[in-house]
Specification:
Elements lengths: L1 E7 L2 E8 L7 E5 L10 H9 L3 E5 L11 H18 L6 E6 L1 H9 L4 E2 L5 E2 L7 E7 L19 E6 L7 H10 L6 E6 L22 H16 L9
Parallel strand pairs: 3-4, 3-5, 5-8, 8-9, 9-10
Antiparallel strand pairs: 1-2, 2-4, 6-7
């Protein structure tokens, strides 16, 4: 993979890019609060090695554990700008995200994201996302009535049994609350924590997975199996 620069108005930002040949599946990756896709090396490299085109924008680290509207809108906008720059019109795309990145992708797929009463974040619906893989997504943002009724895409949803940040019951709630027409593949890993899905978690993280290398390979393989479906034209 290599890094390319895009412009968001007057502000440049970096995007990790893997161009695949032919009609390759396209994966749009949204990192968690830290914002650096390099910290998910096994997942992204596995997707690339399997023949996927990969787009992974860099973001600034979130200033606090609770994101602001401005931070969420910036992330959603730059994810969309990456698609604008590198993907041919009409190409089916899978969104893969961790933590707040997963929540952002869910909002881009039609869910209503709220920061509190009367504080819906106006993230535009992006119909280019045809599949979503959500990894330990914070889902309290979507508790408002009918917040999920506009979601139409198939989902693979990952949760960790040892996650104390976004507990596994949130993923189970999502699977039960989405419209019946939405296919949900729910994957709960009993010994995984919130940060177990990263190759390079923050220094303070306490790892609960015994065989981290084997776990990351298995996890990445399952995500590949979900996103590797017949696609239209890929990155141009």
């Amino acid at each position: 993979m290599h890094v390319e620069q895009l412009q968001d108005g007057d502000h440049p930002f970096a995007v990790m890019v893997q161009h695949a040949a032919g009609h390759a599946p396209v994966v749009l990756f949204a990192a968690g609060a830290g914002g650096l896709p390099e910290r998910y090396h096994t997942l992204l490299q596995t997707l690339a090695d399997a023949g996927c085109s990969v787009l992974a924008p860099h973001f600034e680290r979130l200033a606090t554990p609770f994101p602001t509207q401005q931070e969420l809108l910036l992330r959603a906008r730059r994810l969309a700008l990456a698609l604008d720059a590198f993907v041919t019109p009409g190409a089916p795309i899978a969104g893969v995200g961790h933590s707040i990145g997963a929540s952002t992708l869910l909002a881009m797929s039609g869910a209503a994201l709220w920061l509190g009463p009367g504080a819906r974040v106006p993230i535009p619906h992006d119909p280019r996302l045809g599949l979503l893989c959500l990894v330990t997504a914070p889902l309290g943002f979507f508790q408002a009535p009918e917040a999920l009724t506009q979601v139409r895409v198939p989902l693979q949803v990952w949760a960790g049994g040892q996650d104390t940040i976004t507990v596994a019951s949130q993923a189970q709630w999502l699977a039960q609350t989405l419209p019946a027409s939405v296919t949900v593949d729910l994957c709960v890993v009993a010994d995984a924590g919130h940060l177990s899905f990263m190759d390079s978690p923050p220094p303070h993280a306490v790892e609960t997975v015994t065989d981290k290398v084997g776990f990351l390979r298995e996890f990445a393989g399952e995500v590949c199996g979900f996103v590797m479906q017949p696609r239209g034209p890929g990155i141009g």
